[in-house]
Amino acid sequence: MRGPHNILRLIRTGATLERTGAMNLVLEAFDAPPSLRFAARFLAVPFRWLGYKGDPSQPPATRALTALGPAYIKFGQVLSTRPDVVGEELAAQLRVLQDKLPPFSVAEARETIEHELEIEVDTLFSSFSEPVAAASIAQVHHARLRDSGQEVAVKVLRPGIEKAFQKDVDAFYLAARMVEILAPATRRLRPTDVITHFEGVVKGELDLRMETSSSAEFAANTAKDEGFRVPKVEWFLSARRVMTSEWATGLGAGDIAAIEAAGHDRKALGERVLRLFLNHALRDGFFHADMHQGNLKIAPNGDIIALDFGIMGRLDEYTRRVYAEILFGFIRKDYRRVAEVHFEAGYVPRDKDIDEFARALRAVGEPIFGMDATRISMARLLTYLFEVTERFGMETRTELILLQRTMVVVEGVSRSLYPQINIWQVAQPIVEDYIKTNIGPKALLRDLTRTVQVLGRFGPQLPHLAEEILMRRNEPQVIERRRSRWESVALVATGAAAVLAGLWIGDLLQVF
Question: Which of helix, strand or coil describes residue 233?
Fold first, then answer.
């Protein structure tokens, strides 16, 4: 699977950028140094004839990524939200990738639905439209249920998308290995692990049963979030390649002119997008990890409606606490504490100088405060952060990849709605509230209660384990016999401590 044909795939990537006219645009957008420009041209120009032509009616960047395939399209979707990184011209071209790609035929969609649900489309729906949105993985149709008359959205995977995506991922594995060999300094970023993580995420996105489940869980978590809605899913009209949900009426989050014309408060919307993301990540540990403009609508009443739950992020409680402490430290300008958290979590090797790391973090954080977003060069900031992480030997944390990526996208969406937004001012009350609730005496008591509950489940086994250990006291291995005695004492003591601690903690929690 990951053989010579992937080398051709990588060569075709460069050749396609050159042939479609996107190479110059990309190099300029990223302010590529002369050496990189020379290398790109040296590798791409001789093989220009191998590049895909794409759709001549599309802008160069969109034309190139669409021709290259779904994985490249996903990458383009992320960049489309960051005009501050890639420039307005390239970002404008890439926005087309969000939900305006060439659709496949209605006949193919109907065939997929009938195969997956084992019932004729006309039996289910009184009407079934042409595609209303087409993205890299699937397209959506507007339909009406025949029995109830309810309007629904029917999402259908593209034919052959699984095979097409695997081709791209295989090529990415080859590129990652080549990078690790040719640039050993990048190994700390674990490019191969990053691709493995990406592959797992995408495979989940290619099974709409998982998306249906994610949508239902996300809706339950956010049911009380003011100004936010998740369309209700239709479980019995969903399967591996088909998903049916409530139809959402509203304006696209990227249609700024229409949002203004409708009289919506752009500042409030921009701040709410950021607040929602932080709440979902910190409070719930389960967040929408693909929150670009194409997956958000603004309802007539101003509610934000989330769509497309194929890529969701999940954070365990420990990681959430670390993330919150890092954010809280930046907000308070306590760079020493931010450095300590990195060391405590193992993000930075212990042989590094914590004071030097804190000083480097100050150089990252200080320029942000007191400025609005229009004065911050995110490209320059990201470049400096990369230099800092390289200097201190930080490795890529695969569990944080989606969080980091989504933060970039969400900030871009918020900034498009309200360019003057200050991410730290919006984040501060949310992070402070999380810190008060989840880090401190009350959180410690809650953690101890959970520990007691776990130990309590082993309570019925403690007498048997103690008896079994004591029965081995006549064995010739003296060391083992002594160790067994202490194990027995420890087990009995643990059981007794668990019961007493459970009663004590229960009383304390009543006080709090």
Answer: strand
Long-range Cβ contacts of 191-197 (<8 Å, 24+ apart): 191/396, 193/396, 193/398, 194/396, 194/398, 194/401, 195/169, 196/398, 197/398, 197/401
Condensed to tens digits (0 to 9), the pLDDT of residues 150-194 reads 999 999 999 988 888 888 888 878 777 776 776 666 666 677 876
Distance CA 149, CA 151 (A): 7
In contact, 248 and 299? CB cutoff 8 Å: yes
Residue 444, helix vs strand vs coil: helix
- 292 or 492, greater pLDDT: 292
| For the chain, counts of helices (H) and of strands (E) | 23, 10
Task: Report residue 177 CA to chain centroid gap.
Answer: 23
Looking at the DSSP assignment, which residues form a beta bridge with residue 228?
304
**Which residues are bridge partners to 243 per DSSP?**
155
pLDDT in tens, 72-84: 887 777 667 566 5
Amino acid at 142: H
CA 382 vs CA 335, 376, 378: distances in Å: 18, 11, 6
Are the C-beta atoms of residues 354 and 387 closer than 8 Å to each other?
no
Residue 290 known to be catalytic: yes
N- to C-terminal Cα separation, the chain: 58
Q: Residue holding tokens 């989940």?
A: 204
Contact 369, 427 (CB under 8 A): no
CB atoms within 10 A of CB 336: 16
Q: Does residue 313 sit in helix, strand or coil? A: strand
Q: Does residue 275 have a pLDDT over 90? A: yes
Helix (H) or strand (E) holding 296: strand 296-298
Enumerate the H helices of 49-190 as residue ranges.
60-68, 70-79, 83-86, 88-94, 106-117, 121-124, 161-182
Q: Please state, for a pLDDT cut of 90, what percent of the chain lies above it.
A: 31
Burial classification of residue 56, based on how many CB atoms lie within 10 Å of its CB (0-12 exposed, 13-18 middle, 19 or more buried): exposed
DSSP string, 244-255: EEE----EETT-
Residue 410 CB neighbours (<10 A): 24
CB 172 within 8 A of CB 202: no
Catalytic residue among 290, 316, 372, 507: 290
Say which residues have a Cβ less than 8 Å from residue 21's Cβ, sequence separation at least 6.
60, 63
Strands 296-298 and 251-252, by their bridges, are antiparallel
* Interatomic CA distance for residues 118 and 124, integer angstroms: 11
Report DSSP state, residue 285.
S
